[in-house]
Amino acid sequence: MDFFSRQRTVPDWHQPLIEAQSALVLGVGGIGCTVARELCRLGVGEVVLVDNDVVSVSNLNRQVLYSGGDVGRRKVVAAIEALDRDNLRTRVSGVDCDAVKEWGRVVRLARNSTVVFNCIDYGEYFDTAVMSLCVCLGVPYITASSYGHTAIAECYPPGDLPGSGPCWVCNNAPAKKDVIEAVTPDKVAQLETVEFLPQDVYMPSNQEVGSSVLSCTLAATLTVGAWLNALHGYTTPHWTSCDFAMFQLFSYRSESNNQCPICQKAPRYAPLLVDIYFGTDLVAMTPVGGAVLPYSPTAITNPATQSHVEKAKCRLESVYRDGDDKCVYLPAVPAAQLEYNQPADNVPLPHPLSTPMVKTKDGPQLVIRSGGRSVIIPLYEGCFRLKGCGNYVDAEGMRYTHPGFPLIKIETKDNGYEIRGCCFEHTGLNEQYMSQKVGELLSEHGIIVGNKPMGLWRYEITEDTIPTIPKLCGVFETLGERRVSSHLLPGLEALVSQFFPSVTEGEVWCLFPPERRGGEEIIPTWSACCTGANKSSPIDMGPVKLIESEPSSSPPEGIPPSFMAPWIQGAFSLRQALAREDTLTLASLLALVYQRVGWEMGTVKRSLENHRINWGYFFDHNPFEPHCNAHPNNYIVLPPGQPSLLAPVDFDFSFEEGGFFSPYSGSTDKSLFDSWLGSEAVEMERAVAGETANTGLQMTMTQNDMSAAHRGLCWGFRDTLLLGYRAGYGGEETVTIPENIRPCVDSVVKMALLLTHLANT
Ligand SMILES: [Zn+2]
What we know:
Elements: H1 5-8, H2 15-19, E1 22-26, H3 30-42, E2 46-51, H4 75-86, E3 91-96, H5 103-111, E4 115-118, H6 124-137, E5 141-147, E6 150-156, H7 177-181, H8 185-188, H9 206-209, H10 213-231, E7 239-243, E8 248-252, H11 271-277, E9 282-287, E10 290-294, E11 300-301, H12 306-313, E12 319-320, E13 327-329, E14 339-340, E15 357-360, E16 365-369, E17 374-379, E18 382-387, E19 407-409, E20 416-419, H13 425-442, E21 451-459, E22 472-478, H14 484-499, H15 505-509, E23 517-518, E24 521-522, H16 525-529, H17 561-580, H18 586-610, E25 613-614, E26 635-637, E27 646-648, E28 655-656, H19 670-688, H20 708-730, H21 742-760
Parallel strand pairs: 1-2, 1-4, 2-3, 4-5, 13-20
Antiparallel strand pairs: 5-6, 6-7, 7-8, 9-15, 9-16, 10-21, 11-14, 12-13, 16-17, 17-18, 18-22, 19-20, 21-22, 23-24, 25-28, 26-27
Bound molecules: zinc ion (ZN).
Residues 166-167, 169-170, 257, 260, 262-263 line the site of zinc ion (ZN).
């Protein structure tokens, strides 16, 4: 029994996407009645109605959910009854409340919705408040109206980035600025009432110009259609009017207004963008005792005097715990201790970052889980990274540790221990200082760093394992959390299978020179073309011709409902671009992404070397295994709208030549510095080529049931990544993304991340 078999066959129709939607319909009058009925007939997952009125005789000409027997009844009650007769699968519910007086309830309902239909005729200030709420939550704002013979439908879907698409207020801002100021997106979701909003006085009411079932139904149908279009990725007019006296249809797309009081206060990231680019796995935090050391660009210096070197040298020896035989090792970065000076212009960190917190089992602050000792805190003004906020793990068999800085035995040392879950004074200062410094150096290449320093917390906690060793946490504003090795590359490899489902071994094998065709498999990039002897040249997938299919706009099986729309919209935009751009193919597009990603990684490494900065390659307590921070997983993937695709992070073990000392001789040693820079470059190139030794990361394509042809194809793209890396590291050419291709590149990156998310859940 498939109610929707007739609409499933409509081209580019995604019934599962429609069924994943939850619609809030404000007002079940002339337009709201038809909107709600159509949403039910379409099979939308959930419809929630809000109204505070009773059915009157004059409603019955156009409010199609009510009949004579309903006069005097509550509209919400009568509408739910009527919808249940029409209903196929939708969960319908209603709230009988005054949306103006009880705004807080509207906010809570909107938080659980994927679209808001504003069908309440209260006036432009109320419309502004609803629009603002939609901007705050990153959901489409849909509205409609009818005047005499005219039906008007309006649709304002959220852009990928706040402000990238116009909102209703952009071109309709009401006059009273102080009133609008009270309902901007940063405030509107905190209000419990919006009774202070003036009602419209001058707009013609439908009592004067009249309204019929024709104009109301037409407006409702147009507006539901506009929303459906936008949901599927079509470019939809913001404003459509239909006059059935003249039989004229008129529509246009409006322009964003960079003075708009609503768009300009949009949150830094819409909630869906946070899910895709930062993560969805939550963990709790609790405030604890401690001090805040705020950052300013002049707060941390590198005096590199002999006494600063001596301070650093102490860490080459273990640090002993008082009255115990345990020896505790701290990371021994071979560079002079940096110095912190409390800045005079002390700008406090935004709440809740103004108080130290640690990860706990329960706690007032829910944050996004990141690495073992890190979290991401999504706030209105952006996302913030805490690095060193506790090692609490709630996985099976792990001890619940509070306050979360456990001593862990290291196998390579007798009685040796490390402290986990925090950063230390020297690594904390290093990371703040070097993040700022590297950011300045990279700006000339149009590349930014992923973590902007904001300060440090110094914990003062009662159950401290070793109080004599200060435990700190770095606080940063961060631009992303998805990594190149663990998220982007596995996702791109999964996309290769999606994009070229029927590619054959014959087709793939002939792309490679004979020495790469090792029997049943293509020889991997890292063993074929990496630094060293016995190497062949990497191939460039850019000019390669393959039998291509179009990217399927059907989302892969099992994708979470909230990720369906970004997938479908991404695939749709790619198909449009392939039809529009003569020279663009899926192979050339993927190759461009790989090449650019490689180029950015190479450019960062080149720039660090040129400025005599070691990212974090050195030997400390373990003479057999170097620290190495130069690998693809220390690049985060940026959300769209940034100049580069990636941004490097993780400078806690970085150091400059000035301040470097040899841990063996204890004095400056240029040749050792050069040698470690060189080793770092070798490790980096090996990791880019797919060798996993220094990152501990598996290539997903060796784990799943990918065909030999697809694996070969992936090694081809990996070759292209290496070529891009060498171009960037060689500093000779710039791999640029043409402006008309950039949206396609963003779609590819986003779809790759969605596939990785699918694989990980
Ligand atoms: Zn606007």
